[in-house]
């Protein structure tokens, strides 16, 4: 209990503890006692307070094992120390800030609110406490964050801390103020409860609690008991006053079971019915688990992953910065590979600054974070509070599972064979089947087997050789007979022709321009097909703008009667597509979409529109292991050219 | 579990039931609600690398520890079904048992007393040509009219099965999408060959959030499981990896834990349906491991709680909410129900 507080002569002894009991029993966020200033008549200033809200950073300065109620007291004291050190820092800018246990970055919004309250001074009749004292009546303010600043001068502060309900009532020459982050409608019984709890405790509460703890005989239970203790104490002293306490039947049996089966939770749900709901549930579970594991000392450094805004958005239900995440990360650090470790460390360090939600590794913009926050709050809000979980103990029947121990298990040669087949091969079987049924037009396949590619190759091998000869005859510069060189020469010849065509095109200004523009646009469209719907649509729109201008400039007759010509050349992973077809709107787009759907990554396109006829040369590569046969590609493209 | 220290061999008859099928099995589904007329039904999909495959529905009697086959409850399926799933538990128990299967299309079947009738074939390709085969799907438990499917054309399609129409289709990833899982009525997550886990919200279709990316770029993530008891956590498995990665949706990018005790690659994962911290995984090392996620991990990583060794590589794992005491696994052509 801090004794060295200046100007607090009007504060009764042990007030902080009384405030602690009062606020913890109703699980509100803070309790402040505004005392009358000795120096100025009628002016209210900070007397004492107890903070019972969300905590962001828990740092232990001493190695002593602390009970949670004491943690709360210590926290309040730390906040006071911080305030005082900040004050000193302001007045004496030369000195470095004296080392307080906490630093501003460690505080949640609520804690900030509490801290800033310490600086407030109220003239008679001014502000909520002032009016309460002047009128001699209780004031219950709901929706404090929206209150007029004349009524409640700290309303903006309250908004940032999401304090929604504030209650002030005169007490012992000063004013007691209680606040909570939830909207609690006016409840006279609650007030009664608080007043009684304040009055009835003349002796320090700690000993009471420790006595009851001793009763259980298990030091490790403290954290758990502390929470429940509030209720014992309440049950003993205050009967029938306020609902949440009643639901708890403090049961030593429960505690013992809990020790055995850690995942199991007490009826914390009923405890947390009102007020802070999940928030406290998680928090206590948090502390219980951690302390249980670590033998009582709250030595684990648990810090928030993301900044305060995050918790603000989700009403504190995310507040249990679960030790799972951080502690495990801590422990698992050594396991990960060096780079990853450094990345992790750096990551954690950044988090420790708590300056910004460090999702930068994913390059999330502020917008994304807000959206994601909304999503998470939707998911977690609708999920029930942690249900009373049963242990996985089987009752009666013996289990098939035995206790785990490291054994040399049989190592197969193939990895995830079935799973991979189901994901990689089976879907392609369907595609082959679809194509085959198209091709055959009713003729039933005798073989149940799919391997369309194989079948195709077999039937055309004979014709291939003939075709090579035809090709050789077409190209003037070919001398060799072997296939490889024929193809090489063909490629060279085609390139020559393309270059010539380009030259010819460049002679005609307008066409060239459009051709160039479309060419440039295409890679963008390709890249963006992997984005989500909307972006795709936007690109479609842009492309169509270009297409329209294209059509305008090329007012030549659309060659309706022209045959469309599609040539597809598949060589291992490379696919060369050459098309010549009557031009129409969105044609290029459809072609590219189809090509993409066929698992081809286009890396080069040359297109030109002349007299309403689109000539397109497209070079692409198969994306993955899936190879589509040339026939299939040709089919697809033909169909597209026929569509109108 | 903690109590049983005996070897499982001589107790096999008491704590596990085996069903041998004429063909290798992959897809498996356990019915969520037994009706008065029949015991728990289990649908088994065959895995034959040919066109004709079959799905059989057997029934499991936990009291007599027996599995009965029904010759009438069986149907043909083109190519192996990639996933089977029964209708989630509904408030209306007298409704007929619906079974959904994915393969080339999403198909709905009504499982009656002695026969199975096809209810719908959901095909969303505009041309009849190139349907995008489905790799997996998930039935939304909060909104049972919603089924989300994922396919190799990088899209996820959300179906409204009451109207038999597409609710929406999203391009979810850059590469093939391998698995999808619902978290809430309008929020789902998916994994893909591009190595990322993304969360989508149907209220805001333009944004998705990557909450994890595989450490080696482009290592496909093959399966995803969202903890229905504690929606903060998800689990995923990578290709050719013996790790089960546990993610916290509130902290993207950093996995909460990596469970690395399998001796070979992991094939399937399933969260416990009745507790919030247990997960079961099965892999090519023929082992099924049950893990309990602690709040604080030891320095050497997390050890499993218990294990079971099967006869060969375990391909499939189902832990159904209607039967929280039994885990169903399938390996080669056997299906086993193991008592937890």
UniProtKB/TrEMBL annotation, chain A:
Keywords: Activator, DNA-binding, Nucleus, Transcription, Transcription regulation. One of its GO terms (molecular function) is protein dimerization activity. SUPFAM superfamilies: HLH, helix-loop-helix DNA-binding domain. GO terms for cellular component: nucleus. One of its GO terms (biological process) is regulation of primary metabolic process. Residues 457-503 form the BHLH domain. Transmembrane segments: none annotated. It comes from the Eukaryota. The lineage of its organism: Eukaryota, Viridiplantae, Streptophyta, Embryophyta, Tracheophyta. The gene is LOC115748624. It comes from Rhodamnia argentea. This is Transcription factor EGL1-like. It is found in: Nucleus.
Automatic annotation (TrEMBL), chain B:
Pfam families: WD40. It comes from the Eukaryota. Keywords: Acetylation, Repeat, WD repeat. WD repeats lie at residues 170-210, 259-293. InterPro entries: DCAF7-like, WD40/YVTN_repeat-like_dom_sf, WD40_repeat_CS, WD40_repeat_dom_sf, WD40_rpt. PANTHER family: WD REPEAT CONTAINING PROTEIN. This is Protein TRANSPARENT TESTA GLABRA 1. It comes from Rhodamnia argentea.
């Amino acid at each position: 209990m801090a004794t060295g507080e200046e100007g607090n002569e009007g504060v009764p002894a042990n007030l902080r503890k009384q405030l602690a009991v009062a606020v913890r029993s109703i699980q509100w966020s803070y309790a402040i006692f505004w005392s009358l200033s000795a120096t100025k008549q009628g002016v209210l200033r900070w007397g004492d307070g107890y903070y019972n809200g969300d905590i962001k950073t828990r740092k232990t300065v001493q190695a002593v094992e602390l009970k949670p109620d004491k943690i709360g007291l210590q926290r309040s004291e730390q906040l006071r120390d911080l305030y005082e050190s900040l004050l000193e820092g302001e007045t004496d800018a030369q000195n470095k800030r004296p080392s307080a246990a906490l630093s501003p970055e460690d505080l949640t919004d609520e804690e900030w609110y509490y801290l800033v309250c310490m600086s407030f001074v109220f003239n008679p009749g001014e502000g909520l406490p002032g009016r309460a004292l002047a009128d001699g009546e209780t004031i219950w303010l709901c929706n404090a964050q929206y209150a007029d600043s004349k009524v409640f001068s700290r309303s903006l502060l309250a908004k940032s801390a999401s304090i929604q309900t504030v209650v002030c009532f005169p007490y012992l020459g000063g004013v007691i103020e209680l606040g909570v982050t939830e909207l609690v409608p006016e409840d006279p019984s609650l007030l009664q409860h608080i007043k009684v709890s304040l009055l009835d405790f003349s002796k320090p509460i700690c000993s009471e609690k420790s006595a009851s703890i001793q009763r259980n005989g298990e030091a490790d239970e403290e954290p758990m008991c502390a929470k429940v203790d509030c209720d014992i104490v309440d049950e003993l002293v205050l009967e029938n006053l306020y609902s949440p306490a009643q639901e708890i039947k403090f049961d030593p049996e429960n505690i013992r079971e809990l020790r055995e089966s850690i995942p199991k939770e007490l009826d914390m749900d009923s405890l947390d019915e009102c007020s802070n709901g999940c928030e406290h549930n998680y928090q206590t579970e948090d502390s219980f688990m951690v302390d249980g594991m670590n033998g009582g000392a709250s030595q684990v450094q648990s810090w928030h992953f993301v900044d305060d805004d995050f918790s603000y958005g989700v009403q504190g239900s995310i507040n249990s910065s679960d030790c799972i995440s951080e502690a495990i990360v801590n422990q698992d650090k050594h396991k990960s590979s060096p780079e990853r470790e450094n990345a992790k460390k750096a990551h954690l360090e950044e988090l420790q600054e708590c300056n910004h939600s460090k999702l930068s590794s994913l390059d999330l913009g502020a917008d994304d974070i807000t959206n994601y926050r909304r999503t998470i709050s939707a998911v977690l809000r609708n999920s029930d509070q942690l249900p009373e979980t049963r242990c996985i103990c089987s009752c009666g029947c013996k289990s098939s599972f035995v206790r785990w121990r490291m054994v040399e298990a049989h190592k197969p040669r193939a990895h995830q064979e079935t799973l991979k087949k189901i994901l990689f091969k089976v879907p392609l079987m369907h595609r082959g089947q679809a194509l085959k049924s198209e091709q055959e037009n009713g003729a039933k396949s005798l073989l149940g087997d799919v391997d369309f590619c194989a079948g195709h190759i077999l039937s055309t091998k004979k014709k291939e050789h003939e075709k090579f000869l035809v090709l050789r005859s077409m190209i003037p510069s070919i001398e060799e007979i072997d296939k490889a060189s024929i193809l090489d020469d063909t490629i060279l010849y085609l390139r020559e022709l393309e270059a010539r065509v380009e030259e010819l095109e460049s002679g005609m200004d307008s066409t060239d321009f459009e051709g160039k523009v479309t060419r440039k646009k295409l890679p963008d469209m390709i890249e963006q097909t992997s984005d989500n719907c909307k972006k795709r649509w936007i690109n479609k729109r842009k492309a169509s703008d270009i297409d329209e201008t294209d059509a305008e400039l090329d007012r030549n007759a659309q060659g309706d009667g022209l045959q469309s010509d599609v040539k597809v050349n598949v060589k291992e992973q490379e696919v060369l597509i050459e098309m010549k077809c009557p031009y129409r709107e969105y044609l290029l787009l459809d072609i590219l979409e189809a090509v993409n759907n066929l698992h081809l990554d286009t890396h080069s396109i040359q297109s030109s529109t002349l007299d309403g006829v689109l000539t397109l040369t497209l070079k692409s590569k198969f994306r993955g292991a899936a190879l589509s046969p040339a026939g299939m590609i040709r089919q697809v493209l033909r169909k597209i050219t026929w569509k109108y | 579990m903690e109590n049983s220290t005996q070897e499982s061999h001589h107790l096999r008859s008491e704590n596990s039931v085996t069903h041998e099928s004429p063909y290798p099995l992959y897809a498996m589904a356990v019915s969520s609600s037994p009706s008065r007329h029949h015991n728990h039904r289990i649908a088994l999909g065959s895995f034959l690398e040919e066109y004709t495959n079959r799905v059989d529905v057997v029934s499991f009697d936990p009291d007599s520890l027996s599995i009965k086959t029904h010759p009438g409850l069986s149907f043909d399926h083109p190519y192996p079904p990639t996933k089977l799933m029964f209708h989630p538990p509904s408030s209306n128990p007298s409704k007929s048992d619906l079974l959904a299967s994915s393969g080339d299309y999403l198909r709905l079947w009504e499982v009656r007393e002695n026969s199975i009738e096809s209810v719908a074939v959901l095909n969303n390709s505009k041309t009849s040509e190139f349907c995008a085969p489905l790799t997996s799907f998930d039935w939304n438990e909060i909104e049972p009219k919603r089924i989300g499917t994922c396919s190799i054309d990088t899209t996820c399609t959300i179906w409204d099965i009451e109207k038999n129409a597409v609710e929406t289709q999203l391009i979810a990833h850059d590469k093939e999408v391998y698995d999808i899982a619902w978290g809430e009525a309008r929020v789902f997550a998916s994994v893909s060959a591009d190595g990322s886990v993304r969360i989508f919200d149907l209220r805001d279709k333009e944004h998705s959030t990557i909450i994890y990316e595989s450490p080696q770029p482009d290592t496909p993530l093959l399966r995803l499981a969202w903890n229905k008891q504690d929606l903060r956590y998800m689990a995923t498995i990578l290709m050719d990896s013996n790790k089960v990665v546990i993610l916290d949706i509130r902290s993207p990018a950093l996995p909460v834990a990596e469970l690395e005790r399998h001796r070979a690659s992991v094939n399937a994962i399933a969260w416990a349906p009745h507790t919030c911290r247990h997960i079961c995984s099965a892999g090519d090392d023929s082992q099924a491991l049950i893990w309990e996620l602690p709040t604080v991990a030891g320095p050497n990583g997390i050890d499993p709680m218990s294990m079971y060794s099967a006869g060969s590589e375990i391909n499939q794992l189902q832990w159904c909410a209607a039967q929280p005491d039994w885990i169903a696994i399938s390996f080669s052509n056997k299906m086993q129900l193991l008592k937890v």
